[in-house]
């Protein structure tokens, strides 16, 4: 996380913004998990900054609903209620289906090839849920970028923050990795064929299967 923070600072970002981005990335990467406590002093020391920009970043995380005040514990990373999870996946289905349809229209040959390469790496990582989750994010990010719609991509990236609050990856669920790989392949093939209808339908089905796996995790917890 510190390396990412230093990279952000080299881009000339204000200190508070850089700290916020570093913490957001840490949430996305699972450095901080649902239920974990966030301490100003610990984060300030870790990033080698004063508490002021950390306090500013914490305030933004609270306003985005990513962390919350817990009696007697200070700030903790939020856990989503079941209803929130369902709402999140409903929005994922709508937005990612739209992205797949647009990507089928706009994706270049190079982008399709890159997605195929990522999918091959995803399949090769079977048995390593965390690596599969990392590659899955890259696959979906590639699809978002290929949609050529900055507003849609921005909305999808906002959802990634909420997805970080889900905790354990669905690729740890028995029987999920192989179907997920097949679903990815089919979406990418539909994009390569410029079949927007099929890409959209496959993306919807993919997110619905991901929701089923997510609910299984929550039921077993």
Could you give the order of strands across the largest sheet? 1-3-2
* CATH fold label of the largest domain: Four Helix Bundle (Hemerythrin (Met), subunit A)
Q: Per the principal axes of the C-alpha atoms, what is the gross shape?
A: globular
Query: What is the average per-residue confidence, as pLDDT, rounded to a whole number?
Result: 92
Counted beta strands: 3
CATH architecture of the largest domain: Up-down Bundle
Question: Which range does the strand content fall in?
Answer: under 5%
Account of the 3D structure:
The protein has two domains: 2-77, Winged helix-like DNA-binding domain superfamily/Winged helix DNA-binding domain (Arc Repressor Mutant, subunit A, Orthogonal Bundle), CATH 1.10.10.10; 82-220, Four Helix Bundle (Hemerythrin (Met), subunit A) (Up-down Bundle), CATH 1.20.120. The protein is mainly alpha-helical and 221 residues long. The chain is built from ten helices and three strands. A three-stranded antiparallel beta sheet has the order 1-3-2. The chain has helices at residues 2-10, 15-28, 40-47, 51-63, 82-106, 109-124, 129-146, 150-163, 177-192, 196-220; strands at residues 37-38, 67-70, 74-77. A hairpin with a 3-residue loop joins strand 2 (67-70) and strand 3 (74-77).
């Amino acid at each position: 996380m510190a390396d990412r923070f230093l990279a952000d600072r080299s881009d000339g970002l204000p200190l508070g913004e850089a700290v916020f981005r570093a913490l957001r990335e840490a949430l996305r990467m699972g450095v901080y998990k649902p239920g974990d406590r966030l301490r100003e002093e610990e984060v300030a020391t870790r990033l080698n900054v004063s508490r002021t920009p950390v306090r500013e970043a914490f305030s933004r995380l609270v306003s985005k609903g990513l962390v919350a005040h817990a009696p007697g514990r200070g700030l903790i990373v939020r856990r989503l209620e079941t209803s929130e999870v369902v709402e999140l996946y409903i929005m994922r289905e709508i937005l990612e289906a739209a992205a797949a349809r647009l990507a089928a229209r706009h994706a270049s040959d190079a982008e399709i090839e890159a997605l195929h390469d990522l999918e091959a790496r995803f399949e090769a990582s079977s048995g390593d849920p965390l690596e599969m989750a990392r590659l899955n994010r890259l696959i979906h990010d590639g699809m978002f970028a290929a949609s050529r719609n900055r507003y849609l991509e921005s909305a999808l990236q906002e959802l990634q923050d909420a997805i970080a609050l889900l905790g354990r990856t669905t690729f740890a669920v028995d029987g999920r990795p192989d179907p997920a790989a097949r679903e990815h392949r089919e979406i990418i093939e539909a994009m390569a064929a410029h079949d927007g209808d099929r890409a959209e339908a496959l993306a919807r089905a993919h997110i619905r299967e991901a929701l089923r796996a997510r609910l299984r995790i929550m039921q077993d917890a």
